[in-house]
Amino acid sequence: QVQLVESGGGLVQAGGSLRLSCAASGRTFSTYNMAWFLQAPGKEREFVAAISWSGGNTYYADSVKGRFTISRDNAKNTLYLQMNSLKPEDTAVYYCAARRAALVAGTLDKVDAYGAWGQGTQVTVSS
C-alpha cells in the first residue's frame, strides 16, 4: 500500500497562490490514480481534483476549475496541486488520496473509492 505525506499548506491572503505537494513512498506510485480532497471545519470531505496514473487525464470540481491545477511527477513520486486566485472559502485541510481502480465518472469524486490517504495539510485563506 502506498503511503502519502502532504506538505505546502499555510496562511495566504485572498487572491494569492499556494502549491501543495504529496510525497508517496514505494516504487509503485506511477500505478496509482491520485486525487486531492478538502475538508472544511464541520463539513464532510469533498473532492477537489483527480489525475490518472499517467497524468494524461485530469478532473476538477466545478468550484476550482480555472483556478487549481493538479499534476504529478512519477519520477519523483510526487503529486501536486497548484492553487491560484485563492478565496476564503478554500480554507480547509487538504488531503491527497490514491486508488488503483480507473478514474470513472460516478466514483472518482467519492471518498470511499480511495484506499490510501495522507494526514492532510492546512490551507487558510484570509480575506
Task: Explain what the structure shows.
The strands form two sheets. Strands 2, 4, 5, 6, 9, 10 and 11 form a seven-stranded mixed beta sheet that branches. The mean pLDDT is 96. The protein starts with a strand and ends with a strand. The relative contact order is 0.31. The chain has 127 residues and is an all-beta fold. A hairpin with a 4-residue loop joins strand 7 and strand 8 (78-83). It has strands at residues 4-7, 10-13, 18-24, 33-39, 46-51, 58-60, 68-73, 78-83, 92-99, 116-117, 121-126. It is built from no helices and eleven strands.
Top keywords for this entry?
127 residues; mainly beta; 7-stranded mixed β-sheet; 4-stranded antiparallel β-sheet; 11 strands; globular
Write the layout of secondary structure elements.
Blueprint: E1 4-7, E2 10-13, E3 18-24, E4 33-39, E5 46-51, E6 58-60, E7 68-73, E8 78-83, E9 92-99, E10 116-117, E11 121-126
Parallel strand pairs: 2-11
Antiparallel strand pairs: 1-3, 3-8, 4-5, 4-9, 5-6, 7-8, 9-10, 9-11
Helix-strand pattern: EEEEEEEEEEE
Q: Roughly what is the average pLDDT, rounded to an integer?
A: 96
Poorly predicted runs of 5 or more residues: none
Radius of gyration: 13 Å
Number of E-type strands: 11
Give the strand content.
Answer: over 45%
Helicity, as a percent range: under 10%
Q: Tell me the major beta sheet.
A: 7 strands, mixed
Structural class: mainly beta
**Measured distance between first and last alpha carbons:** 39 Å
- The shape is globular
Tally the helices.
Answer: 0
